[in-house]
Amino acid sequence: MGASATTTPELDAMNGGDGRFSYAKNSFLQGHSVNASKEKIGEAIAEKLDLKILLSTSKTIRIVDVGCSVGPNTFLAIQNIIESIERKYQAQYLNINQKPEFQVFFNDLTSNDFNTLFSSLPPNRQYFAAGVPGSFHGRLFPEGSIHFFYSCIALHILSKVPEELLDMNSPSWNKGRIHYINAPDEVVNAYATQYAKGIEIFLDARAKEMVSGGMAVMIFPANPTGIPYSQTFTGAMFELLESSLLDMAKEGKISEAQVDSFNLPMYVPSLEEMMELVQKNGCFDIEKMELTSPGVHASMTNTSSMGKAIVMHVRAGMERMLIQHFGSEIIDELFNRYAKKFEEFPHHVLPSKKVQLFVVLIRK
Amino acid sequence: MGASATTTPELDAMNGGDGRFSYAKNSFLQGHSVNASKEKIGEAIAEKLDLKILLSTSKTIRIVDVGCSVGPNTFLAIQNIIESIERKYQAQYLNINQKPEFQVFFNDLTSNDFNTLFSSLPPNRQYFAAGVPGSFHGRLFPEGSIHFFYSCIALHILSKVPEELLDMNSPSWNKGRIHYINAPDEVVNAYATQYAKGIEIFLDARAKEMVSGGMAVMIFPANPTGIPYSQTFTGAMFELLESSLLDMAKEGKISEAQVDSFNLPMYVPSLEEMMELVQKNGCFDIEKMELTSPGVHASMTNTSSMGKAIVMHVRAGMERMLIQHFGSEIIDELFNRYAKKFEEFPHHVLPSKKVQLFVVLIRK
C-alpha cells in the first residue's frame, strides 16, 4: 500500500486567497480551456462511459480533479462532468429513482490554498466534496476506488527540475536560460526524460486507483509537431519571462548565476510523446487523443486588457516559485517588464494554433 | 441525495495556523482525552469490530475523524485506530499479504484551517488522506461508504444557538448569562432540545453513511447525573468566562446587551440523554457507553503552568466566536481577567470527576 505522494518533495502551488494576484481571480485562460472542452467531455461521457459497468460494484461515482487549484474553474468542470454523467445515466437506465451519489475529490499540491477552495465550494452542489493534498506524481487514492479522473492544465508540471540542468560539467547545463526554448538538444532531452518519468508514475498510479471501465479526461498544453516551441503560446509566455529576467541580470538587479540556476519545472509534450507513454503503460484504451485550440483566439489576446490579464495569469501561477528563488523585492519590476514585452509581442502568431492536447482514456 | 451540510450556516472553527493562540499549540486537553481513550479504543476494535464483514464488500477501510480541528491530536488518534485495526486484521486473518488500504477523511467546519492540517500530515503515514469541510449536523459522505467514525470533544457543539434565548418575550431569554449555568429550567430545556435535534440529525446522517458492521467511537464532555453543571470542569471553564464578561459589562467596557445576546453554542448532555437519543435512532447497537475521566487530574490543573495552558486552550477554542460578537479590542483584557479568575478557582473540585462520555456504537 501506499500514499507514496508524501515521499516526493513538493513544488509550490498557485497563488492562494482571492487577492489581486490570486489564481482565483486570474485563471481565465484555464477557464477558456474548461469552456472549450465542455462539449468534448460531454460527448466522451455519452459515447464511451459505461455506467452499467461502473455501478455494478458501487452506488457512488467518485470523481477526481487532479491539480484543481482553488476554483472557480474546477467547480464548473465538475458540474459539467456530473451533468453529463446524469444524462448518460438517464439514457442507460429506466429507473431514475436510484440515481447514483457523487463524491468529488479536489486534488492539488499540499501548498495549494485549500481553505479558499473549500470556502468557495458551490453552496447547492449535488455532490459530497473532499480535498486531497499531494502530488499527482504518486498514489493519492485506494486501489480501484475512482471512476473518473479529470485534469485541466496541470500535467505539464514536472515533479522536479531535471538535476543535470544545474550541473556545470554536464552538456545539459542550462546556462542563461530558464527553460528549453532555443536550448541545445541535451537540455530538451533532460526535460523530456523527466517528463516521461513523471507521466509514467502518474499513469501507473491512476491505473491502480481506477476501476475497470473508469474514464480519465486530461487537457494540457501540447506542442504541435513541426512548430518551434517558442512560437506556441506557452513557449512565448515563458520566453518573455526569460528575456525579462536576463535584462534584469544584465543590469545587475539579479545575478547571472541566479538566472542560470532557475529552471521552470514544466514541459510541453507532443501528441506522439504522450501516445507512446500511454501505450507503454498498457492499462488504458485510448478513446481520444487530439490537438485542440485552448479557446483563446488571436483577436482576444490582441486587446490591451487581455494582454494585462495574461500577465496576471502568469503571475498568479508562477509568483511563489519566482519569489522562492529570486526573493520578493524584484517581483513587481519583473512583471512590469514582462507586461511591456508582452505588449510588443506579435500576438497574431499565437493562440489560434492547436496547442492543447485533449485525451480520453478508459481503464481496461 | 445529499450534501445537506451545506444548507446549515456554520459556526466558526478553532483558531487556525500555528501561532501562540492556535488550536495546534493549545489542544493539550484534547490530547489527554486522546491518550486516555487510546486503550479503550483498541479494546473496542479488538472485541467488537468484525473485519470479515467490513472487508467482504470493500478492499479499503474508510475512517473519519468528525470535528478533527488542525492536529496534532487527530493524527495520534487516527494512528491508534489504524494500528488497532491492523492488529485485529492479523488476529482475524491468516493471509496478511492482502492487507486492506486505509483512507482517512479529516472533517471539520469549512472555516477550519485545513491548510495547516494538510501541511502537518505525518509524512510517513500509512493511509490516503482527505479533508472534508462541512458541519457534522448533516450528510458528509455517500451512502454506505464509511467503516469507522471517530469523534473526540466535538459533539457538544450545537449547530446553532437556540433562538428563544435571544427573545426578550420568551421565558427562555438568557439575560445576564452566556450559557445555562445557574439558569432557569426554560433556558436549560432550550439548550437540551437544540442538542437533541442536532444529535438526531448527526446519528441519522452517520447511519446512512456507515456500512453495516461499521463502528463509531465518540468521546465528548458529559454531565455526571446529580452533579451541578457548574461544578464540572467544562461548566467551570464557561462560568469563569461568563463572570469575566459580566465584570467588563459592569465597568462599561462592553454593553450588557452584548452579553445578553451572546450564548455559547454548546451543551453537555448526561449519559441518560445520549442513551435515549441513540435508542430513538434505532440504527446502532450500543456496545459501550460509560462516563470516564478526561485524563486531566486535579493535581495537574493545580499548577500555575497548567492553569495558564487551560486558559490558552479556551482562547484557542473560542477566540473567533468571541471576536465576532464583541470585537477584537476586548480579547486580551478578557483573557487576562479570565486567567486571574482561573488562578483563584478551587481546582480540587474539578477534573478528577468522570465528565466525559465514551461511546462505542456498531451500525446494525
From TrEMBL, chains A, B:
PANTHER family named in the record: S-ADENOSYL-L-METHIONINE:CARBOXYL METHYLTRANSFERASE FAMILY PROTEIN
Swiss-Prot/TrEMBL keywords: Magnesium, Metal-binding, Methyltransferase, Transferase
InterPro entries membership: MeTrfase_7, MeTrfase_capping, SAM-dependent_MTases_sf
Molecular functions per Gene Ontology: metal ion binding; S-adenosylmethionine-dependent methyltransferase activity
Gene label: SABATH28
Classification of source organism: Eukaryota, Viridiplantae, Streptophyta, Embryophyta, Tracheophyta
Keyword Transferase: yes
GO biological process, one term: methylation
Superkingdom of this protein's organism: Eukaryota
Designated name of the protein: SABATH methyltransferase 28
Source organism: Populus trichocarpa
